[in-house]
């Protein structure tokens, strides 16, 4: 009996299991939607900031599960958002596919609601017709991108009375595709009055050109950007629905940056012709397989098509294309043309013209070698030659544009890697692309530091760039690892978190942004560029500007005096950061903090006989105690003021320090995710308060923040052998015999 019952149970269990799997499968196959709200999606606790006195954008991106949804509206789906009564909905902008017509709305069906015992308003919002971007089916690695989305709704909201410290936004879809969520918001007030204009320029991105913002929405953004002393914004796409909006920015006194389209100079559009004629056979690159790229699966050469030598030879099709794209960008108003071509080191080009140019440039006797053998035999020469081809590309652009567009500045979007080692006489690493900033000489006006990691890494990276090149550096504070913060990337990261249960750790965004701005400026950035996509970033900006205006002369006119300062770490106990398992803060940022001696970060400048020492604590959890000893100071009395907290440090109750006392030193605390900028002056500086410090020597050795410098030569042979791997793999997969066009053999 018992056995029988067990068998019955087993059968029943199997039946239920099969039913369960069937239900699960049919659930998965059924279409449904996911919606993510930005900037709340940045945060693990979905708590984001809104402006008290400016307009805040809240972006909702739509994703599908199971199958694309081509008509969300026909299923009767409606989208509602409930806002606390103090927060008024001014406008909603709808994007329904890339470069599709878009709409903005200023009136909405609205009904009263109550939440958490408070008055709310429930707005009915437009929904995109199509949902074409899938939700992820597996987690993203690290902090990676997470896809774009072009089906979204942006709400522009603004309080009409003081906002309480904590409120929530509730939203839901009803109908065929129900989904809902909520997030917390807190108000941010920017400092009153006019902010000081800094010499270190700020540049920022305007609204996505494909969204049809109203004039009033753009004017509100202009009001914010003027408040923050942003001087340049991205040029508006002439073809996008925001066409003509450039005038709004221009009349408000902004200049423009651009050049994004130049990323495509090496790419084919399939037709390879324009009003000036068409590409010839010899304009196509010859790859590592010795074959021309014409007609090949574009993936074989990582979407690159044209020969760099053709690109720098006047009259040739690729040259004309380069100049045409450059002129278009200049015509659109861009005065800062930063070019992100990511010219590959090994994909191109091994055509007879490039090989001739290579042997000439390298002063080597010409010899017959297969492309791969050539790179392996002359890795350093090939590296330098490919950078030279890119330098000549910038040079060509300068020659063509400078006359017609006086004042236009041409920059390369580039960065150094592996900066612990040196490459010949070039210090601080190597460039992963054929655009080594140290080899660009006078062909560029600036470098756009393509760091994009966030945390301490960006500051160390900009330091390496500034120390190894004399070109001005535009730097990017506040990155989320691999990319900036954006609604598209964060939808992917939240989907990942839902699958893995992980956190990302962006909770210190405001603190890190302010710290990043100040540290990047001290490490050599002459301008800063980033998106003001959240109120807390604007607050960080305003506060950093107030500080920068007092100290930037040291960076721009002074000289570095790091060797006059010794800093010793006296912090006791381990940081809670050790236990942080969040993917970016506890993973990536912590990794670079450890790799690049983040424990003590300082920077000292000297100007007109006075000194400025920055002490940067990137630890998000622990206040540090650092001991400072200042050597070889001129004799006499000094005032010591922290320009971040506006505190004057006294010694044993005395206002002035002697040089002997400063050499013996003192310990000072650096709050977590923050910095001190200590100014050593002969005259007292204005301050809000004083703190008394003790003059005492440190009982531990001075910390070496450059201990990661290995003082050895990078193995260029090994480096180039690594760089060959991917292009060879692409050719194996997509190139050569797989192509039907057999007529591509390069004429020798
Ligand atoms: Zn070539």
Show the helix and strand layout.
Layout: H1 2-29, E1 32-38, E2 47-51, E3 56-65, E4 78-84, E5 87-96, E6 103-105, E7 110-115, E8 118-125, E9 151-159, E10 167-174, E11 179-188, E12 201-204, H2 215-227, E13 230-234, H3 246-251, E14 255-258, E15 273-274, E16 277-278, H4 308-311, H5 317-331, E17 334-339, H6 352-362, H7 371-377, H8 379-401, E18 409-414, E19 446-449, H9 456-468, E20 473-475, H10 487-500, H11 509-522, E21 525-529, H12 535-557, E22 559-560, E23 565-569, H13 583-595, E24 601-607, E25 610-617, E26 624-630, E27 637-642, E28 647-651, E29 657-658, H14 659-664, E30 666-670, E31 674-681, E32 689-693, H15 716-734
Supply database-style keywords.
748 residues; alpha/beta; 8-stranded parallel β-barrel; binds zinc ion
Task: Describe this entry's structure for a reader.
The chain is an alpha/beta fold. Among the domains are: 34-188, Immunoglobulin-like (Sandwich), CATH 2.60.40; 194-255, no CATH class; 562-693, Golgi alpha-mannosidase II (Immunoglobulin-like, Sandwich). It is 28% helix and 25% strand. The chain contains 15 helices and 32 strands. An eight-stranded parallel barrel has the order 12-13-14-17-18-19-20-21, surrounded by five helices. Strands 22, 24, 25, 27, 28, 29, 31 and 32 form an eight-stranded mixed β-sheet that branches. Helix 5 packs across helix 8 and helix 7 (371-377) packs antiparallel against helix 15 (716-734). It is globular, with a radius of gyration of 29 Å. Residues 285-286, 307, 309, 349, 351, 353-354 line the site of zinc ion (ZN).
């Amino acid at each position: 009996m018992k056995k029988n019952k067990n068998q019955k149970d087993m059968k029943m269990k199997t039946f239920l299991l099969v039913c369960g799997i069937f239900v699960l499968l049919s659930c998965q196959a059924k279409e449904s939607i996911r919606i993510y709200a930005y900037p709340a999606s940045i945060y693990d606790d979905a708590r984001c900031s809104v402006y008290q006195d400016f307009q805040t954008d809240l972006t909702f991106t739509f994703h599908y599960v199971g199958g694309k949804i081509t008509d969300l509206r026909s299923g009767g789906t409606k989208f509602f958002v409930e806002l606390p009564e103090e927060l008024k909905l001014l406008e909603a902008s709808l994007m329904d596919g890339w470069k599709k017509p878009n709409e903005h709305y200023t009136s909405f069906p609205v009904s009263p609601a109550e939440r958490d015992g408070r008055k709310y308003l429930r707005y009915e919002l437009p929904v995109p017709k199509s949902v074409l971007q899938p939700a992820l089916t597996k987690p993203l690695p690290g902090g990676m991108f997470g896809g774009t989305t072009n089906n979204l709704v942006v709400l522009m909201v603004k309080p009409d009375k003081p906002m309480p410290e904590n409120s929530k936004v509730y939203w839901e879809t009803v109908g065929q595709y129900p989904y809902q969520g909520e997030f917390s918001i807190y108000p941010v007030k920017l400092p009153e009055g006019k902010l000081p204009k800094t010499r270190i320029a700020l540049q920022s991105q305007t609204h996505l050109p494909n969204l049809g913002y109203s004039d009033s929405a753009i004017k509100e953004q202009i009001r914010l950007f003027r408040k923050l002393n942003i001087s340049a914004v991205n040029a508006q796409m002439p073809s996008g629905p925001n066409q003509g909006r450039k005038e709004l920015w221009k009349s408000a006194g902004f200049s423009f940056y651009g050049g994004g389209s130049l990323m495509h100079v090496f790419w084919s559009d399939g037709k390879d012709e324009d009003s000036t004629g068409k590409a010839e056979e010899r304009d196509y690159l010859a790859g590592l397989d010795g074959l021309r790229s014409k007609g090949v699966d574009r993936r074989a050469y990582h979407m690159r098509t044209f020969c760099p030598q053709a690109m720098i030879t006047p009259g040739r099709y690729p040259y004309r294309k380069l100049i045409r794209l450059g002129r278009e960008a200049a015509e659109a108003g861009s005065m800062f043309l930063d070019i992100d071509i990511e010219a590959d080191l090994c994909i191109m080009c091994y055509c007879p013209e490039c090989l001739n140019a290579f042997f000439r440039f390298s002063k080597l006797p010409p010899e017959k070698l297969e492309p791969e053998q050539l790179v392996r035999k002359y890795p350093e020469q090939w590296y330098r030659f490919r950078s030279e081809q890119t330098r000549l590309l910038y040079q060509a652009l300068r020659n063509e544009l400078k006359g017609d567009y006086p004042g236009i500045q041409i920059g390369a979007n580039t960065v150094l890697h592996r900066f612990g080692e040196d490459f010949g006489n070039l210090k601080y690493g190597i460039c992963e692309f054929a655009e080594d900033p140290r080899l660009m000489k006078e062909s560029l006006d600036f470098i756009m530091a393509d760091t994009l990691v966030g945390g301490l890494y960006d500051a160390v990276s900009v330091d390496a760039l500034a120390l190894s090149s004399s070109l001005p550096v535009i730097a990017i504070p506040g990155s989320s690892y691999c990319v900036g913060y954006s609604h598209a990337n964060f939808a992917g990261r939240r989907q990942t978190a839902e699958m893995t249960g992980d956190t990302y750790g962006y909770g210190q965004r405001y603190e890190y942004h302010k710290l990043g701005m100040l540290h990047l400026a001290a490490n050599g950035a002459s301008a800063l560029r980033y998106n003001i996509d959240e109120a807390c970033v604007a607050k960080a900006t305003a506060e950093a500007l107030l500080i920068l205006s007092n100290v930037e002369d040291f960076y721009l006119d002074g000289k570095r005096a790091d060797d006059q300062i010794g800093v010793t770490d006296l912090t006791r106990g381990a940081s809670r950061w050790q236990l942080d398992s969040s993917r970016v803060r506890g993973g990536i940022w912590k990794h670079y903090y450890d790799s690049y001696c983040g424990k003590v970060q300082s920077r000292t400048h000297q100007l007109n006989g006075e000194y400025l020492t920055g002490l940067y604590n990137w630890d998000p959890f622990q206040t540090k105690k650092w001991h400072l000893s200042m050597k070889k100071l001129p004799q006499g009395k000094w005032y010591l003021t922290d320009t971040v907290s506006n505190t004057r440090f006294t010694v044993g109750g005395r206002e002035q320090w002697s040089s002997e006392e400063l050499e013996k030193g003192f310990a000072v605390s650096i709050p977590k995710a923050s910095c001190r900028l200590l100014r050593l002056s002969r005259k007292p500086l204005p301050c809000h308060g004083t703190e008394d410090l003790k003059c005492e020597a440190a009982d531990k050795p001075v910390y070496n923040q450059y201990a990661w410098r290995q003082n050895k030569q990078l193995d260029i042979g090994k480096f180039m052998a690594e760089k060959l791997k991917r292009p060879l793999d692409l050719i194996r997969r997509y190139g050569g015999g797989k192509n039907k066009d057999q007529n591509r053999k390069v004429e020798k």
